[in-house]
Amino acid sequence: MTNNLSLALIAFGSNENSIFGDPRETVQKAMKFVADMSVKHHYSSDLYRNPAFPKGAGPDFFNAAMVINTNLSPDELLVELHKIESEAHRVRDKRWGQRTLDLDLIAVDALVLPDVLTYSYWRDLALADQQAQAPDRLVLPHPRLQDRSFVLVPLCDVAPNWVHPVFGKTVREMRNALPPEELESVVRVD
User: Is this model's pTM higher than 0.90 or not?
Assistant: First the structure.
């Protein structure tokens, strides 16, 4: 554990029933677990529904985002998020498939981990290679954050002014740069 508080951005997703309930209930339960990990304040987005990515990869997802204050290092926080996924019986048998729960550590403060070169490699990887390969260590910010409406739309609820440390753009600016049809596919759930 570190002594200083960091601001962590976390994305939530589910499109398969878990021991917590249906995908909507699973995301809501996971958000409670993560909120309990916050040292000071936490901010939760609304819940959203959107088609699976890539298209045809399964039923619609329920997605949300949260900002927490933590005194855990990024690696320690990732371990805790993976524990919550395990409680929901998350199986990691293929990338971008159906899942009971997906918790992505999107960013911690303005850290670029492990370094800009590694970050750039994963950001620029071709889509087919992204589906076949996974990093062997934590890469922050999430390399595809700027491309994913299902992350940026909920993240805009809680951290619209967070600035990407490589691009120098806010969450709101990255969201607004996406095609309108992508943004329209992410629908707030009542």
Answer: yes
